[in-house]
């Protein structure tokens, strides 16, 4: 099934209107590429379509082969290596990211029906129902979105995909995610403009709490304001490098760095390679994540 889906996506006009819609992205790497500590601010489903992905968890390495899926929860950081298929000459992975509003409505609507426990395995092999609902979601995302009901249909397809995961008993960190944590609230504010001169007191004020309260709430979630600010900026940088043709200087400015060289140093320190090296490895987005 993964080969059919990949073949279908590769036939699509990558720069057409429909490719700018939805919360899904297809990435290709033509060279083996290792990325360290990639931040995930929202639950993310990764579908390996070609090559394989090595996920590094401390001293443990988990391989995700073509046709397998990866469930990454919000707030997690993972290091990974994308290894191209020797015959196809590239690695390809599809990502589906959960929208906060969608997740809130999903939790309210289906909380009573969802299993109390689900497998928390990072890598799993989906069943036929999961593949069918993924295919339906991708098809819906690719259709022109001209009315509010089109967006509702996309959300509906996403819900059926999440329900299929629950039905199989997998992807706990996606299906049972609790949206709107303090971490997520701070991330949403910063992510609106990562280049802004964000101060913790200002963010606390926007969230209608004191700075001390916000610090305590984040500590309860093993997070800190400074850490989240750095994560959001680097996370935005990673997306812009992989999904746009903006210059390194433009990306640096968009992420709060006035010096491209300092930005490049920070990017390399965080992900283990420079923005230019990542781009040269052939990363390519067909749809924005």
From TrEMBL:
Signal peptide: none
Keywords linked to the UniProt accession: DNA-binding, Transcription, Transcription regulation
Domain HTH araC/xylS-type: 184-281
Name the UniProt record assigns to this protein: Helix-turn-helix domain-containing protein
Pfam families in alphabetical order: HTH_18
